[in-house]
Amino acid sequence: MSELLTPSASAPAPAEESERPAAPRRDALRVLRMTASRIGTALLVLLCTATVAFFLVRLSGDPVKVLLPPDATAQQESVLRHGLGLDRPLLTQYLDYLWGIPRLDFGDSLFYNQPVRAVLADRIPATLLLAAGALVVTLVVALPAGTVAAMRRGRAADRTVMTGVLLGQSTPPFWIGILLILVFAVGLHALPASGYGTFANLVLPAVTLAVYSVAVVARLLRSSLIDVLGADHIRTARAKGFGPVKVVLTHGLRNASLPVVTVVGLEVGSLLGGAILTEQVFSWPGVGQLTIEAISNRDFPLVQATVLLFAATFVVVNLLVDLSYSLLDPRVRTSR
To answer: What pTM did the predictor assign?
Structure first.
């Protein structure tokens, strides 16, 4: 009887062992489904953005009136309109536009007489440089400021940081840019007011663009850290004799990083979109200034491409941030 009972008693063991490898596979399939869903949503958003941009830009008026002199005849306007393909049915233009997007073919610029892709390629590096400089300023200033404010809650350092946050969030960036020009370029002659190509040219535009982001990130990090520092594992770390700095750097920042990463990701897109006014103030030759010029010239293909570029930046950054949640917080990975 003991021999008969032995196999039955040990029978569940292989079943349990066979279930263990299935858990990673289920997690992998869950991640793949989640990734595919997010990518599908991102493509749908880009399609809607491209559609809205295509039809709205045509409500601004006829570009032929801008490209030709005021005394142009109706025949000249008709010839130019035919040459630009604007006399074709609107649906045909729309389908051609959508067909060109996957091939990065946005047509030719009406004003520059060049492929839109080439025009954007000349301006994108300047905007990326400005956004990267602003992001560096944001992280270098906001992370220490938010951490110090959380560690010195209610004290002078905390009040100083929160006052700066209030000013940064309530002051228009273009006004900050003008003020910086008056102080550092006109008054002190320390930095150039415009131009492109040197580190000195980058300082004022990058600081101007980063002011709002610094305020947002510092405020959120302070709030998140205050919540985390009251958790049980933080009290346990303090009971073990860890100093306040080690507790915050080792245990606090990682647990408080999830909402901060979300906002930083959103701010990356905002830095690129917000560069439009900053580039105008400092005459920075980037995509933002190009967008203003394209709107003024009613350059339909160029406006559509720049709007789609900004939208794609937001969508891609948000997608990467969403996918990075599972790396930062295992609870997010297991809940999906």
So the answer is: 0.77
Residue with tokens 């060109």: 100
- Residue of 335, 299, 306 lying closest to 112 (CA atoms): 299
- In whole angstroms, what is the distance from residue 146 CA to residue 167 CA? 15
For 59-112, the DSSP string reads TS--HHHHHS-TT--HHHHHHHHHHHTTTS-HHHHHHHHHHHTTTT---B-TTT
pLDDT digits (tens, 9 = 90+) for 150-193: 878 888 888 988 898 888 888 888 889 999 999 999 989 899 98
Residues 129, 136: Cα–Cα separation, whole Å:
11
> What integer is the mean pLDDT of 80-100?
87
Query: CA distances (Å), 151 to each of 157, 169, 248, 252, in order?
Result: 9, 22, 8, 11
Q: Which helix (H) or strand (E) holds 275?
A: helix 257-282
Phi, psi of 195 (to 5 degrees): 115, 175
**C-alpha distances in angstroms, 335 versus 326, 331, 332?**
10, 6, 5
**From CA 289, how far away is CA 241, in angstroms rounded?**
55
- Distant-in-sequence contacts of 34-38, Cβ < 8 A, 24+ apart: 34/336, 35/323, 38/319, 38/322, 38/323
Rounded-to-integer distance, Cα 151 and Cα 130, Å: 32
| Helix/strand/coil for 20 | coil
